[in-house]
Amino acid sequence: MEALGDDKKVVKVDKTVVKPKKQTRARNNKTCSAGQDLSDKQLQDVAKTLEQEWDQVALHLGLKNEDLDEIKKENKVFMQRRNMLRLWKDRRPGKATAQDLLRGLEDMKDLPDETRQLLKELLLPKMESN
Predict the structure, then answer these.
(1) Is pLDDT at 115 greater than 60 in this prediction?
(2) Residues paired with 2 in a beta bridge
(3) Which pTM does this prediction carry?
(4) What is the per-residue DSSP string for 17-80?
(5) From the CB of residue 32, how many other CB atoms can be counted at a distance below 10 Å?
(6) How far, in Å, are 18, 56, 85, 86, 116 from residue 59 at the CA level?
């Protein structure tokens, strides 16, 4: 593209756009590796382990108070927890793995042991039946 400068000379402007490489992830729903986002079913399983501290989980994961206000419009507490995790996942495409979730919550003192244990289990590949 060419543009005229202040002194009316022709100046070439380079507007090369470099696109980031696409990340490839495994699509096997039975296992969760460091590079695979949690599935909706896995998010539901995690949501089931959370209790009243789910809003603190949201803040540890970087969600804002405005996000919490919107999530809390849902009447059912389980759906609030699931929607919170879904929002976290949607804002981190390719970076919403069990490892990412566990890392984001590792310094949270009130995290239920059941939640921590489930996330650790999701990091391990499940044995496939023959």
Answers:
(1) yes
(2) 12
(3) 0.68
(4) -PPPPPP-----TT---TTSPPPHHHHHHHHHH--TTHHHHHHHTT--HHHHHHHTTSS-HHHH
(5) 23
(6) 34, 5, 11, 14, 17
